[in-house]
Structures are given as structure tokens and as C-alpha cells.
Amino acid sequence: MKNGESYSKSRRNFVKGITAGLLLIPFLQFCSDKVVQFIFRLSGTNHLLGHRLWIKDFPKPSSQIQIPYLIVGGGISGLSAARQFQKKGILDFLVVELESHLGGNSSNGENQYSKFPLGAHYLPLPNFKDKELLQFLEEEKIIIGYDSKGLPVFDELQLSFAPDERLFYKNTWQDGVVPKEGNSREQDVEFQRFFKLMDSFRQGKGHDGKYYFDIPLQLSSDDVAIRALDKITMKEWFESNNFKVEPLFNYIDYCCKDDFGLGIEYVSAWAGIHYFAARKQDATSNKIDSVLTWPEGNARLASHLKKYTDQKTLKNHIIYEVKVENSKVVAKAFDDVKKISVEIIADKVIMATPQFVNQYIIKDRKEFTKEFHYTPWLLATLTVTDLADNDSFPLSWDNVIYDAKGLGYVYDQHQSLNQIQSKQVITYYHSFSSSDLKKSRKELYKKKEDHWKQFVFDDLKVAHPDIEECTEQMEVFLLGHGMVSPAPGFIFGEAKKQASKSIENRIYFAHTDLSGISIFEEAFHQGINIVNQILDETTLDS
Amino acid sequence: MGKKFLRFEFLLLFAVFIIATCGLIYELVAGTLASYLLGDSVKQFSFIIGVYLFSMGIGSFFSKFFHKNLLNTFVEIEILVGLIGGLSSVLLFMLFESVAYFQFILYLLVFVTGFLVGLEIPLLMNILKDKVEFKDLVSNVFTFDYIGALLASILFPLILVPKLGIMGTSLFFGMINVSIAIALCFLLNKELKRSYFLKAKAIFSFVVLLTVFLFSDSILSYSEGKLYGENIIYTNSTPYQRIVLTHNKSDYRLYLNNNLQFSSADEYRYHEALVHPAMSIAKSVKHVLVLGGGDGLAVREILKYKQVEKVTLVDLDEGMTKLFKTNKVLTDFNKGSLNNPKVTVINTDAYIWAKTCTEKFDVAIIDFPDPSNYSLGKLYSLNFYQTLKNILQPDAAVVIQTTSPYFAPKSFWCINKTVMQVFPQVDAYHAYVPSFGEWGYTIAINGFGSTFNQVNRKADKLKFYNYQFDRFNYFTTDMISNEIEINRLDNQILVRYFDEEWGKL
């Protein structure tokens, strides 16, 4: 023994050893029997109530509500419409929501350690041109001012903290989600060529002076050559542009799934490129590819919008029939708590509900609704005692495992100011990308809890070998119709156009599936635009 | 008869030899430990030898009160000496970290061991006095006694400490001591009364010592100490950090997660430079905030100003502040500052605390660890300084330890530039701290009511800082870096600069 370290080490161990060894020997057996309690919960969107739309075994309405404006669906589209009504000075509207809470895909859960998202979890920095969104962010103090160049200053606490992304690639965590380290020269060259191409798509404008790719999507150019990209899959585009290397294929596949649920093989090339090219990254002079995020994900944005619906909501109500009668709209709703039905008479109705639902509520919509596809999603929130890995790059906000089944996980406490967390809460995302989404959906609901538990663990084990032993809680959340999927031909196709048409200037439609891509900005503008349309028409009428 | 008696006498004399060896070993262990832990080896050794010899005298004196069952008593004492002496080093190490009256316990243990050893020789002579001629008895007993002492003093520095270490040595000799007792129990079975009881006691003591010994032995391979090249006298892993205190000659060093926090030889330079510029510049110093600095050394400097009414120290690590409130060596360094009634210690996350704090402070001393990871990097962010500004009085002074402008100029000026976004007056200065190198600070005033060269008050008897601020804020070209970004939570550019600059060293 050459130095003091060993003494002091033995000092501590002496205490521990003597105490544990002599006193606890008889109890050791009990300790080994008592494993850490693993809690597992499975939930999801209320598909059981939703599925009653198939048979409509609801009681006859026993009461009646009269309201000028009815909004069906309390997701971001519906909430944004409510906000726009209030902005226009209209207060006599009602929002009806099937779930027990508002927010739709922007909802969240919470456990004793953290809030966590149950769907969308971030908003990329908006385009500078998108004044309506900038204004909303300013109202909610997400933008705290404008700098000398006139660019918005975002609240530091709501921008994703550094380090924001890492990728487990070749057995090492690396900075960012683009596979970089350990690539061959050929691979590097292809990545560079790809990003250069995306830059030109980002800057490019069509003959109509509009960007090739923009947000909201309807502002994009109608340039034929660009729109033709919607006819092929992203994989076909990849190959026809002579891209070959696997890490690039894999990276694009990841990106497509991240935004659309559908992978490179099934998603429209127009949508795939939109992911890279629609965000102009021109709203800040700081970190241009930053995102806004919160522990509860976009539920934060939903909660900002919710204030416009105070005292104007019916939750746990499913609208099961909407039709125009005597220049009024008659909507029938079933109260899932009181188990009674109510009839709502409105002047105008905004259906801020997805089309797969609308087809059961409003007649003659089944035909074009067939063209709408929705990807199922599985989210799993894990509470982990120690998220051990090989320490090659620190835990980040977004953690992606190369070539995994899922999209990796988000560290839910990343936006916390604390130095350390006693337990770590992470949310794992998986989209069921396949050619037959219906089949995937059936599988999602048919497979048992144990299957999904093991599925999540197995997918994370690549980077965290002992995650199963370290997990105390897992909450799996299933979304049967997670988001609309832009398969080739859909975004500029006939079905979307048909579905967007209002009925007799009484029933209007607003939902991200009418944009074709399921992102916050689309929903936000869907809500605003539909209210503007209704009010413009009303002004014209009078 | 004669043969049997020879064996009896020989056995007891051998016991004398062992007792003498062991006794001296315990004395040397105590002396070595005391100088390891407390420093000043001449004083420690001198006191311990004195106390030990004195207590042997007391023991000898009390030996005359023993009349019955002398042999039994002798064996019992043998067991006790082995147990107490053997465990003494372990006990001292254990208590050093948490007990303020460590020295009392040290001398108590030395006294008890000396007392018991002092009892033994007269007892033995009493046992043998009827069986051996007095002349032979005295000569034999003392011969063996002194030979044993010589053996111990030679073995101790040359073989025992290098091979077994302090703790191993004392435990090993405790076991030898007790095994003599066991041997006596078995060999003198007939002479002893109720020998089964003694046997049980002896064997139990032996097992205890052996268990502890094996523990200490199995850890010998653990060699974190090599990292420091100094004697580690205390280590503790709190939930937040690993605290290591080392001692080498007259210098104590505290490491947090292997980073040097201070060296007792020159920490006064670091802490005077940290505290006094801000304290002299601030308009008022009634209520002072310290973030980090759980060692209480900055608080020690703050308390040199009588105008200070209240000091609030926020440090995440309760283990750290507790250590610096209770440990004798460490409270000598910080002059018991954390126990001062003016000082309130809050163990919580400083960032979260600052977000919810409703008080306003006149001076803020920020002494966080260097921004070596993304968690610590948050404490140097734009948002953190904005948060800090909210809890400061107008014209409050703020000082931030800002790593080394020589080793890490980008990191240094990054923090400085970030602070500039928030406070109306910002400057930087540096001081040479031999154990750290050239070290830097960022200082700010929350208003225009004072300037950096203003001295509103002074503390007496400073060793380093002379209240001439403009002697400290000149930076040579090799300590300057331009084209630096501001550190925000969303870029944490500082952590990258820091990693880049310190990583290449």
C-alpha cells in the first residue's frame, strides 16, 4: 500500500462491509427476491369510442344546443380556428372533442419525474415569411423580441438546448443525426452532393415566383417539373439521381419517417424533399437549424391555444352525424360520460377532424377517403435509473440509433435547468412504415403488451445494452392513425381536393390530412385559413 | 516439572517480546497517521510518543490493584490490546472525515493502548515472581521488551508500511497480538480459569481483525492515489461529485472529480482575487450571495468585511458543505466560515434556486466548477446571467471565476462576452495562482453607480490583493481571443471551446 487512497477506500468499505456483512446476512435472501418493481402501462387514442362510428349505436338526442359556429375536433387545427375566431371578435363558437383533453397529436403525459409528449414534440424555427406563426410565437413569449437586423429573438429556454442531436453509428455516438464519422470518401461525396441539391431546392423558385417548397404547403410553386416529384417515391428519386450509398439511403429513410411516418420506399419524393427544402432557416442569425421544444412537446403550443376555448368546449363528446338541414347544420354528439346524446344546431361547422373519421359522420365521403392513408405510431416513455452507454457523446435531446426499427428517443428532461436528474425519462418513437398500413394497424392492436415491451427494449439495446434492467416504468401509447401519409400522388391528387371542398357553404374542412403532411404549421394555418374563408364568404353574402 | 516450567516461562517471555513489538507499532501507526492527516510531523510524533509513554506509566501504576487471576487478566489484556491497537488506524481514518474532535479521539486511543501495554509488563512480572529468581526475571523481561522495540522500529518504515500500509500494519499486528492470546489460552489451558470463555473472546477478536484486514487487503490494488501522487487522506463520492483531499508535506489539496479545487499553499491568492475586487467596488455589501464555493473559502474572505450582514451560499452538494463545516483540518482553512451565524447555506441547484429567489443581493460571487460538460455549461449561459441580474440590487457587483485566460482564452472571453450582454459594466482580470497557473475572473457592475477602480471599503491584512484593480486587468497578447460567440443554452458554445482548449493540453 503506497498511498492513502487504499486506506480510505477500505475505510468506506469497512463500514459498508461490516454493516452489510454482519447484520444483514440473514436478510440478504429477501433483498435478492425483491427486484425493482417494473411498471408497464399501455394506452392510446380512444379508438374504442371512435370505432362505434361504424355501427352508431348511440341513443337518440335528448337535448339541443344552438350555436353559430361549431368546431369539431380539438387538435391544433380546431384550436387554431378557435383562436382565429377570437381574433376576429367572434366568441359564440363551441369546440367538441372526443378525448377527455384538447390537443390531438399535441398532447402529453406526465409522471413524477417529467412531462413527456404523446405525439408531436417540436417545432422547427418558422420561416421568416410566416408572419402569422411569428405573431403567435410572439404572443406566447416564445419570441421575446426582434434584433437589430429585424430577426426574431427566440427565448433561450424554449430553443432545444445543446447538445441537441446525436446518432449511434458504428458503435459510437456522434454529434448530429447525419452519419459522418467513419464514412468512406465516396459516401462523403454523396452526402455533400445530396445536401447541395437540397440547398438548391430550398432556394429554388418556380416560374410563378413561389418557392418550390414552402410552408404552409399550399404556398409552394405549381411548377410542373417540381410537382412531378409527387408522382414517384423518394426511393425512386434517390436512385434516378444516381445516389447509391447506404448511409445516405438510411439517413433519408429516417428523415421521411420522422416527418411523415412513411419511409423512403413509400413516401412521395415531393414530400421527402419538402422535409429538407421547405424550411428556409432564415428567421435567426444564430443557430439556423434549431428547433423549439418543451418537455411535454407540442402540448405546450396546444396549451397556449387552449385559452381561446375556455368555457367553449365539450370534451368526451363524439360527433357521430353532421348534415345540412333547412340552411342549418345539424350535428349529433354522444356524451361518453353521461351516456346521452345531444343535438347541436349551428350556422357553420368546421370539421377539424381527420377524413377517416369524417367519412362516418358525413355522407358520400367514403369514395375519396380511400385515398387517405394514415401511419400507425407507437410511443414508449421509459423511466430509467441510469441511461448508461459508451459515453462517446453526451446524452442529447434527440438520440437516434442508426438502422434501428424506430426513430430513436427524445430525452424529455433535456430542457431542464437542473445539473442532474435522479431518474431519466425518455420517449421512444416508432412509426409503422409499410405498404399495407391497415395491416400494420391491426397488428398494433392485436399484439400483446409483452410483445411491445420487448420490441422497445430490443430496439434500444443496440446502444444501451442494460436498458431493460435499468427501466423502472414504461408507458406505451398507441396511435392507430398517427398521421396522414403522403404516398405518391396524394398531395396534388384529386381526393385531397374533393375532401377539402366545403358543403353548401355550411360545412367546412380543416385538418393536416388536407395538407398532406402532418406538422404543426400546417394545422395552424388550416385553422386560420378556414375561419378567414368562412368570414370572407359571410362578408360577401351580406 | 522443570521442563514444563521452562515452557511456561519461555511462553510468557515470548509474549513480552510480542507485546513490546506491537506496542511500539501502534505508537508509530498513530504518529504516522497524525502527521498524514494533521500535518506537522515533528509535533505529532513528539506528542504521541509522550502520551504513549505517559500512559504506559499510568498503566504500570494501576497494575498493583490486580491481585487475583493474574494470568487470566494478562490474556484478556493481550486480546484487548490487539483489538484496540489493531483497529485504531481504521477507526481514525473513519472518524477523520466527520468528527471535529478528531485529535481527542486520536490521543484517547493512544492513551488506552499505552495504558494496556503498561499494565502488562508488571502483571507478567507478578505472575512469574514466585517461579523465577527476581534477578533473572527483571533481566529477561526487559531484554525481550527492548529487543521487541528495536525490531518494530526497524520493520515499520522499511517493510511494514511499504508492504502493508498503515492500516494493514496495525491490523496485522493486532492479529499477532491476539494470536499470542489464543496460543496462551491453549497452551496454558490448565493454569487458566474458565479458559473456554477466554478462547472464545480471543478467536472472535481474531476473526474481526482478519475480516477487516482482508477488506483492506483486497483494496490494495485500487490505485487512484497514483493519479494524484500525493497521500489521499479523504475521499467521498456524493451524488454529484467525487471529493478527494490529499496531503503532502504542508500542502493540502482538494480535488472535485479529479479537478484541483484548491491547494492550501496558495488558495489565498485565488480567493482574495475572487472576492475582494467585487467587495470593494460594490455600492453596498450588506447581503452577499455565493453560488458554488461550498468549501467556504470565499465566505471566509467575505466575512473580513464588518459591513456584511448576511451571506447566502448556494451549493448543490450537501456532502461538500457538511465536510467543510465539520472537518477540523478544513474548518481551519475556512476559519469555520460556514458555521458563522451570518452565513446561510442552501443545498440546492443554483440555477433553479435563482429562478425562484425573491431576495436581492448587493454582491454575487460565482465560483462554479469549470464548464467542462453540458450540465455545467448551463451555469455560464446568457439566460443564467439574465436570471442572476433579476436577483441583484442596482449597482450590485458580480464576479465570476472564468477559468484560465492563458490555457483557455476562447472560453475565458466567451464568458466575458456573454456577461457583457447582460450587465452595463463588465471587465476582466487575472491573478497568478501557482497550483492553477494564470487564472481569470469576469467582473460586472449592475449599473453605473460605481466603477472598477473605485474602492468603497477595504479589509485588513490581505496577503495578495492590494485594492489596485488596474494592476490586474491588463492582458498580454497570448491571453486574448477575438471572434468569440455568446454562450447560450441552445448552442453551449463555451463547452465546445473549453473542450477544444483544455482537451489539447
UniProtKB/TrEMBL annotation, chain B:
GO terms for cellular component: plasma membrane. GO terms for biological process: spermidine biosynthetic process. It comes from the Bacteria. Spermidine binds at H271, D295. The keyword Zinc does not apply. It is an enzyme of class 2 (transferase). It catalyses: S-adenosyl 3-(methylsulfanyl)propylamine + putrescine = S-methyl-5'-thioadenosine + spermidine + H(+). One of its GO terms (molecular function) is spermidine synthase activity. The active site is at D367. Its main location: membrane. It is found in: Cell membrane. The keyword Transferase applies. Keywords: Cell membrane, Membrane, Polyamine biosynthesis, Spermidine biosynthesis, Transferase, Transmembrane, Transmembrane helix. Its EC number is 2.5.1.16. InterPro entries: PABS (IPR030374), PABS_CS (IPR030373), SAM-dependent_MTases_sf (IPR029063), Spermi_synthase (IPR001045). Pathway: Amine and polyamine biosynthesis; spermidine biosynthesis; spermidine from putrescine: step 1/1. S-methyl-5'-thioadenosine binds at Q241, D315, D349, A350. It is a multi-pass membrane protein. Belongs to the spermidine/spermine synthase family. Catalyzes the irreversible transfer of a propylamine group from the amino donor S-adenosylmethioninamine (decarboxy-AdoMet) to putrescine (1,4-diaminobutane) to yield spermidine. Homodimer or homotetramer. This is Polyamine aminopropyltransferase. The lineage of its organism: Bacteria, Pseudomonadati, Bacteroidota, Flavobacteriia, Flavobacteriales. The gene is speE.
